[in-house]
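Escalated from tier 1: phosphoenolpyruvate holo job.
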Amino acid sequence: MIIRPVDEVRGELDAPPSKSYTHRAYFLALLAEGRSTIENPLVCDDTLATLNALRAFGADVDGKTVVPPEEPSPGFVYARESGTTARFSIALAGSIEGKTLIDGARRLRERPMEGLVKALKDLGAEVDGFSLPLTVKGPVKPGRVSVDASKSSQFVSGLLLLGAKVGLKVEARNPVSKPYIEMTLRTMEAFGVEFERDGFYFEVYPGVKGTRYKVPGDYSTASFFLAAGALYGKVRVNNLLREDVQADMAFLDALEEFGARVKRGRDYVEVDGGELKAVALDCSDFPDSFPILAVVAAYAKGRSVIRARQLRFKESDRVRAMAVNLSRMGVKVRELEDGLEIEGGRPRGAKVETFNDHRIAMAMSIAALGAEGPSVIEDTESVSKSHPGFFDDLRRLLG
Ligand SMILES: O=C(O)C1=C[C@@H](OP(=O)(O)O)[C@@H](O)[C@H](O)C1
Ligand SMILES: C=C(OP(=O)(O)O)C(=O)O
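Tier 2 regenerated the structure:
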């Protein structure tokens, strides 16, 4: 795809439904005692992988309505590239008598599963392998488990969902991406799950109620369009609830730190730019913002430092991916163990790679809009992992 620089980006659009909440609602509907209706679910590669996982576990699903099985049955779950689908399926397979096979695409086989596997083994499940493909033979013995969450909060979220089925006490050690754990708890409450907590120690009681659940808008996907407003004009994204706990709501605070103006309405966010200046921040609690934060830093005056502990374990090594791409655009970057140092200026158009990572593809598309000269972005299909309509939405903002 060729992307040429534009004079301005201005307009408004609706945020697509949240990918993270869609995953949670589907898996809780699988565990529920009765039928659920999921309103406005996100349809993308990752949530289709989760729908297939529900079918593998015996649910009858048509995208909106989920009729759970009497008891989930063991099956074969192919999670594509979806880390959330894989971790939640591995955890829930611990509640099932019999052996479930979970596998994924090439990159997902390289992504960490060990902390979750160790926790399931501690609970008495038989798990062979510490990365995909692996099999899980349940059932676990309900009890107390401690999980190392330094590589992914999804290990904690998966165990909390398992707890909603069998009853568990879960202690999370060194969690990253902590707001995603809050998103899991909030969705569990919506499905009538009872739990108590003390910090990151949780006691989850078994029982999930069939529910009509409406998926809110996705702040992670909205961040790319809002960044374009900060960099090149003014953008408003509707369908974003102020009363939410999504991790990438923190992206708005980061934009303000860069010097952008952010207006938070009851159900929308509006951003416009100004003279942007360098920042130093740790996004370990909102890691999906890293690629687009690096792009904003590439246009902000001064030297920014942006880091997060778990960036190398995503759909790509996102530190390396952004270092390679921004360097090709003539941006001075220094790669750190857990992030990048970025000297802001005026990037040049270049041929850049997506590394088959949807957030790299979307971030570099925004970077290209302000560059000196056209850019070529290879393999942009990965945007369908989270937002198949990304380029349609972006064109709408280009007048
Ligand atoms: O629980 C979730 O929905 C997610 C948690 C985060 O992963 P980590 O907890 O592995 O950082 C995030 O990167 C991912 O896009 C979605
Ligand atoms: C990392 C992501 O998702 P997952 O972990 O579910 O693959 C993402 O959407 O950026």
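The first strand starts at residue 2 and ends at 3.
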